[in-house]
Amino acid sequence: MRTTLASLAIIGLASQALAINPVEIKGSKWFDSKTGDQFFIKGVDYQPDITSTSSYRDPLANSAICTRDLPYLKDLGVNAIRVYQTEPYGDHDDCMSMLADAGIYVLLDLSTPNESIDRSNPSYDVDLLGYYQSKVDTFGGYDNLLGFIAGNEVANAANNTNASAFVKGILRDTKAYIKSKGLTAPVGYAANDDADIRWQMQTYFDCGTTEEQADFYGLNLYEWCGDSVTFETSGYAAVVQNFTNWDVPAILTEYGCNAVRPRTFPEIASIYGSDMDSAFSGAFVYEYVEEANGYGLVSISGNTVTKTEDYDNFKSALAAVNPTGYTLSNYTASGKQQSCPDVSTANSWLASATLPPTPSNATCECMMNSLYCVSQLTEIPTDTNGLATFGTNVSSIYGTVCGSISCSEVEADGEAGTYGKYSFCNTIQRVSWVMNAWYTSQRGVSGSCDFSGFATLTKPSLSSDSSCSSAADSSNGDSDLDSDVDSDSSSHKSGAESAMKSLSAGAVAVAAWAAIF
């Protein structure tokens, strides 16, 4: 059941009991908001439309898929699913209602392969924020929404941890948007388990102001492989030690090493037992549907669902655990917030605690109104050939112009914590600024606003951009749904979570638009 202001106005005070109780966070625990019992996630990662040829995939908008899979989810005994890719359009009421009636909560990734932070060339702009906000608008009112994930394994090595500043920036702004809408959904992050950056990543998403801090922290952990290892020898014990006295909920957003098949899931006894239940609030096993990587609990062909050899093993292991924990009334939060990690190569951390500013449509539109030389295109091409040509042209323009004059006002540096005045504008707006900077530096000589037909001259409505920084943004960052590309991936995954392929890695702030999926 979805509760909205409109529905409350209709049903008034005589509302019936909710199909599912919303959960809430207090300190490092989740609790059932009605019963007060601690809530432990017994989840599965769920992306059943892996055979889709479209980059736009949304299993929660397909009631037939939900109807097909729900009996298996109930039989497994899960109380939550993590869905990697959804879209902010379409009708999700049927699926979300069916899941709620079955007692199943939903954790949603905000990013998609087309809308996310690119770890190789990170930026964060008005369009990406607008897309995340539209996802909040679509899903934020469902009672069985467990929360949102602002990024999945965006930084996966020491040399690309600077991307974390941009992820944390959009996490901050998504939290602010949720609050402005009167909603309470938490926003967290899901990290890969890289020992070189594990602690730094963990503390980075915990440090800073309450507005900047992740509401929960997820870890994709694949260290426990088979029955021959234990809690201590698998590496799990070392991971759990890092979360001792943590101040927000910690969960495993992925687990289930498949180096030994069939999987028997011995780690489940530790996740929901005394080894881990004081530090972790449950976990999501990877994954529901079998892919080429061999992690599925079921295989699907059309409407036929076939259990893999892992299915019953997971079901049995999950049924054998019953964590209880605290009640809301007898729990006192005592966790300690962490300080931000030092930024240095020696510390294997390159993300500044200074985050990018909140993108502002009004500022970017104001800037565009001050330009003489702008892009002829007003929207990013969506077809493969057009996108590739666009990326090549933009990369060439940046290379030509920014090699001769400063482009700092449209550049962002997550390591230094420096962000240009227009670094959050979208790609067309930023490249227009670059071309105009060249045009004015050449004093408007003939041909200086051409760029092989990419640019055109226009008459600005503003004499300068001096007032643009204070331009009011009544939309709170809402924008069209064009966005940057995805690098939220894990090395073992395929499908919607696969890594993007960049065309021009050396281009500043725009190479991602040349990506071909």
Question: What does this 3D model show about the protein?
Answer:
There is one protein chain. This protein is α/β, with parallel strands linked by helices. It has 13 helices and 16 strands. The strands form five sheets. The chain has an eight-stranded parallel beta sheet. Strands 1-2 form a two-stranded antiparallel sheet. A two-stranded antiparallel sheet has the order 11-12.
Distance between the termini: 36 Å
Largest sheet: 8 strands, parallel
User: What is the string of helix and strand elements?
Assistant: HEEEHEHEHEHEHEHHEHEEEHHEHEEHE
Separate helix tally: 13
List keywords for this structure.
single chain; alpha/beta; two-stranded antiparallel sheet; 16 strands; disordered C terminus
Short description:
By secondary structure, this protein is α/β, with parallel strands linked by helices. The protein has helices at 5-11, 63-76, 93-101, 126-139, 164-180, 198-204, 231-234, 236-241, 267-271, 309-319, 361-368, 384-402, 427-441; strands at residues 23-26, 29-32, 41-45, 80-83, 105-109, 145-152, 187-192, 217-221, 250-255, 282-285, 298-301, 304-307, 373-375, 412-413, 418-419, 455-457.
